[in-house]
Amino acid sequence: MSIGTKNESSLHKKLKFQYAGAGGKTEVVTGDFVADGLRKDGEYIEVQTGSFGPLKKKIKKLTQYGKVRIIHPIAVVKKIEVYDTSEKLLYRRKSPVRGCIWDLFDVLMYAPELPLVKGVVIEVVLADITEKRVKDGKGSWRRKGISIRDRELSAWHENIIFTKKTDYLKYFIPFKKNEEFTVSSLAKKTGIKTDTARKALYTLSKMKIVIRKEKKGNCWVYTR
Q1: 123 in Cβ contact with 70 (< 8 Å)
Q2: Residues 133-149: what's their mean pLDDT?
Q3: SS3 for 17-54, per residue?
Q4: What does the pLDDT read at residue 3?
Q5: The domain 172-224 is classified under which CATH number: 3.30.63.20, 3.30.50.10, 3.40.50.12780, 3.40.50.2300?
Q6: Closest of 168, 176, 174, 178 to residue 187, by C-alpha
Q7: Which of 27, 56, 62 is closest to 43 using CA atoms?
Q8: What is the value of pTM for the model shown?
């Protein structure tokens, strides 16, 4: 078993090998860290399924050796399969929650400085993901003791690449230059939840893509 692969999901493994590509390497020791992959062209690959917070030091160090591409999968559709301890399928269902590109801010808000690091590219993979669980009594109380055993990529929809500030404006800020907007107006115009709009504007303001100007009443006013 390679370094860092002990608890690796099938989803993580598939993306790691796919993005490392032909002629590339995986589990590459670089300085004090182990990169998920290194492409033939010298670009480092880091697959991150959770918060970007733990990547802060690692990504900044890796950029001293070359460009870095952070791959983040988002489940557009999540299918759940539950097994017993003898691996017999008990039932399967589809999660009512659908993912979208705006879910990026759930993880990016913990490290909004990463997209500003020279040489860093963020690529979002929109896909259908199957989550396999086992009814073993050892999982979270929220799942009534059911543990997550694995995650698999079951269908690929789209990949979206963010290399510069204008990419974020294109996908997330449907307002003209100098036009003022708030959390509520962003949520209304894009059809997202208010909490999602709040996370997005917090992150984008930290990235210096939008400017938080002033407070009018109880609302902060932003511009591009």
Answers
A1: yes
A2: 88
A3: HHHHCCCCEEEEEECCEEEEEECCCCCEEEECCCCCHH
A4: 45
A5: 3.30.63.20
A6: 174
A7: 62
A8: 0.92
